[in-house]
């Protein structure tokens, strides 16, 4: 990873989204870990996506964490997170809101 700090953001979708369908529609490779968690590859970044309200098939709130991204990447992690969230929202026409529980570790 470009630096040792993991970056994550929390998002709320209105209405809820079906992450399975959205990831498939966007042709984003992913591996389901549990009914509430998947690992995805988006724009050379490895992401941990966890649903904090709902399930992967009916997600109202999610946490997206960048686990790894290319060293020397031109795009900073925050911008990468925004691109992922915007892509999910655009594909579903859902409203997206950045949650106040965001944190940088």
Automatic annotation (TrEMBL):
Recorded superkingdom: Archaea
Give the protein name, as stated in the record. Answer: Uncharacterized protein
Provenance organism: Halopiger aswanensis
